[in-house]
Design brief:
Largest sheet: none
Number of helices: 7
Order of helices and strands: HHHHHHH
CATH superfamily of the largest domain: Cytochrome c-like domain
Strand content: under 5%
CATH class of the largest domain: Mainly Alpha
Shape: elongated
Mean pLDDT: 85
Radius of gyration: 34 Å
Low-confidence stretches: none
Distance between the termini: 113 Å
Structural class: mainly alpha
Number of domains: 2
Helix content: 40-55%
């Protein structure tokens, strides 16, 4: 029994010595264990100050989103140059023709499955709609409609080109 008691005292002494060494290490040395590293206590590091001008605060997509459609003006100019209309035709074929169709009548391959059909782009309703309103409908979709929001798919200048092309079609006779 005496051996077990002596062995217990030796183990306890060694454990206390190790605990004391670790505590001394943590309390008195400039480098400690993990909880004293910047990755754990990053809030103690100074916050970096961002240089001014890195984050845009004017222009961009927010301007289009917050401006009423009636007040938006095409960046292409009015009337749109023929090169913009030609580019708009190419973009229409890529992004719009599947629903609105080759004849712009809402009878595209995908559009035929919709009820109601997509708008006839040569209808009076569409042709008298201001360019800015059409731009916003292409960009952010039509509420309760099937027009998808394409602002993240098509660049703003290209959306204006599509609007110019649609407006160049005129009213269907």
């Amino acid at each position: 029994m005496k051996r077990i008691t002596v062995l217990g005292l030796v183990v306890s002494t060694i454990a206390l010595a190790i605990y004391g060494a670790i505590t001394l290490y943590d309390d008195n040395l400039s480098v400690g264990r993990m909880w004293q590293t910047p990755t754990v206590r990053a809030y103690e590091e100074p916050i970096l100050i961002m240089a001014s001008g890195l984050v845009p605060t004017t222009g961009g997509e927010i301007r289009f989103r917050t401006t009423p459609g009636e007040d938006l003006v095409s960046s292409l100019g009015t009337p749109a140059p023929p090169t913009a209309i030609t580019a708009g035709k190419r973009l229409y074929a890529r992004y719009c023709q599947q629903c609105h169709g080759v004849n712009h009548d809402g009878q595209g391959t995908v559009g035929q499955s919709f009820a109601p059909l997509p708008n006839d782009l040569r209808s009076t309703k569409v042709q008298v709609t201001p360019e800015g309103v059409l731009f916003k409908e292409i960009s952010y979709g039509v509420p309760n409609g099937r027009q998808p929001a394409l602002a993240t798919t098509i660049e703003a200048t290209d959306r204006w080109r599509i609007v110019a092309y649609v407006k160049s079609l005129g009213i269907r006779n």
